[in-house]
Amino acid sequence: MLIRAEQMNAFEDGARRNFEEEMVRHVKQFTPKHAELLGEGGTRSVVQFAMDRASRHGFTMRGPCRLYIDFVFMFGSDFDTDPQFPWAGAILSDAGTPDQMAKAERLHQESIAYVDAVAGPNYEYSINAFKRARRVSYEDLARPIADLESSSVAGFRAIFPEKYAYVGDSALRQLTREAVEKARMHSVSSQAGILVFAFLMFALGHGFAADPHHPWIASTLAQPPAGDPNRRAERLHSKAMIYLDRVLANVG
What we know:
Blueprint: H1 16-30, H2 32-56, H3 62-75, H4 86-92, H5 100-118, H6 124-134, H7 138-142, H8 148-159, H9 161-167, H10 169-185, H11 191-204, H12 215-222, H13 231-251
Helix pairs in contact: 1-2, 1-3, 2-3, 3-5, 4-5, 6-13, 8-9, 8-10, 8-11, 10-11, 11-13, 12-13
């Protein structure tokens, strides 16, 4: 993630289309396996989404806008409001730093600190977390528990202790409360179903349910519930395991 102090406005008349094409090529290099899974159209849709979201935060120069696109792929489409990344929202909304290059540089530095602490050398911590998550069955999530919020956060800690330590207990409790509300929006009320939502928010960002670079999630949630709406979450867990298999196959 290199931020260049290019003065060209990526959204000037006639420039947006060329910049979009450049960013589609960039994403194919930045995250080739993900771009391959998304396909040309899907990759372009995510780039367009990220460009629009970046512009709302005043990022119109090529360097800051490119950084924002990278963050969408790294941290999720709604990273700017995610309790797991409070530093991102604070920087983007800081009226005391109106210069977009300065904001982008601060975001860049914070992201380096985050990735170093959470992902670890050669992404070792993340890979180990993926392997632990892959061993969690839907039946495991359905076992009786006394306190859903505390159990959810304990699960985060067991699967990804480095991320738990960096993000903190309070933010992850907030994330779990959001998961309860998000699950209800999709008529999911079972303990196992809510925990599926919570763990996907933990892994993919709190906007996972409508994230354009994980279209399999929205399509799974949109399927008819076949009687019990909680079946949506069970199907989502099954698809998530397939997704993890693909991730692990690409990093193994």
